[in-house]
Each structure stands twice: as structure tokens, then as C-alpha cells.
């Protein structure tokens, strides 16, 4: 199964907004207060916010395609674009979402393999991410891949303060 990784361009902004909202709603809507959740969606995936992120030189969004069909997207941050750790020897995987119809097909591992290779080629020491402490399925997936918990940070969905585990994968060059 060959995946194509296509960097998002400014011309992809509307599509990025749509995919971002759709995948986040699918993943987390049922576990959150509707008012807080809608406030978060409106802010985090607004045209202005995603435009700012997409034009940041230290942030990269990718669409992932299988046989020409969009199956996932993810976001990588370096340097000062990272949400917590702003070290030059690290890269943050802030978002990684596989579309519902393609979950369970081993795409997450293939995407992480590609990301790990990119991090290694950039001569970074580690890749890190935040994952909601209640998302045990994702935590177990990352642990199977070799990530380990090294801390926590608060994550707000509207006014609801939640806790993300910070997980790290050491990269051997």
C-alpha cells in the first residue's frame, strides 16, 4: 500500500478547514460538553487560525492520499511553532487524524514511519506529541510504536480544562 504525502498549500485552506473539523468532530464530539466543544471548533479551526498556522514557516500540514483518495492529514511543528517544548532538536506531531472510513487499515503506522524518517533527516533527536489522557486507544497505539510518556500539559476544549499526556519517541540518527 503506497501512500502519497502532499504538503498543504495556502490554496488548500478551505479543504484543510473542512478535513480538520470533520476528523476532530468524529474523534471527540461525543466525549465533550457541546457548548465547550463548539467553541473550540470555531476557534481552533477558524479560517484565520488555520491561515496563521499554514503560513508559519515552522509548521507543515500534510494531506495523505491512497490511490488518489484523501485518507488522513497531520501537522508538524518545529522550533517556536511547537506548542510546549521549543527545542531545536525536537519536532512536534500536533495533529494526526485518519478519516473514519480508513481507520483500522494500518495507515497510522505508515504515516508515523514517514514522519519518523522526516524527523531523522532533519537531524532531530526526538518526536513528541500530546494525546488526551482519556484516549486510551491512541495512547496504546503510540506506546506500541515506541513512544513513552514524559509529562502532561493542560488542553482546553472551550472552558473545559483537560489533560494531555506528552509522549516522546527518541530518534536514532
UniProtKB/TrEMBL annotation:
Report domain N-acetyltransferase positions: 3-172
Q: Does the keyword Acyltransferase apply?
A: yes
Superkingdom classification of source = Bacteria
Keywords, alphabetical: Acyltransferase, Transferase
Stored CDD domains: NAT_SF
Matching entries from Gene3D superfamilies are given as: 3.40.630.30
Name-wise, this protein is: GNAT family N-acetyltransferase
InterPro entries given in the database record: Acyl_CoA_acyltransferase (IPR016181), GNAT_dom (IPR000182), YpeA/RimI_acetyltransf (IPR050680)
Amino acid at each position: 500500500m503506497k501512500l502519497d504525502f502532499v504538503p498543504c498549500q495556502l490554496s488548500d485552506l478551505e479543504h484543510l478547514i473542512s478535513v480538520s473539523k470533520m476528523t476532530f468532530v468524529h474523534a471527540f464530539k461525543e466525549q465533550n460538553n457541546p457548548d465547550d466543544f463548539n467553541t473550540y471548533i470555531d476557534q481552533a479551526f477558524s479560517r484565520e487560525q488555520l491561515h496563521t498556522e499554514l503560513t508559519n514557516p515552522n509548521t507543515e500540514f500534510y494531506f495523505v492520499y491512497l490511490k488518489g483518495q484523501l485518507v488522513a492529514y497531520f501537522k508538524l511543528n518545529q522550533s517556536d511553532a511547537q506548542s510546549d517544548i521549543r527545542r531545536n532538536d525536537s519536532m512536534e506531531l500536533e495533529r494526526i487524524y485518519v478519516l473514519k472510513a480508513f481507520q483500522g487499515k494500518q495507515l497510522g503506522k505508515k504515516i508515523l514511519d514517514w514522519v519518523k524518517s522526516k524527523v531523522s533527516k532533519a537531524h532531530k533527536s526526538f518526536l513528541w506529541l500530546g494525546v488526551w489522557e482519556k484516549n486510551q486507544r491512541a495512547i496504546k497505539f503510540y506506546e506500541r510504536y515506541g513512544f513513552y510518556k514524559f509529562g502532561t500539559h493542560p488542553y482546553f476544549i472551550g472552558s473545559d480544562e483537560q489533560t494531555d499526556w506528552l509522549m516522546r519517541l527518541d530518534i536514532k540518527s
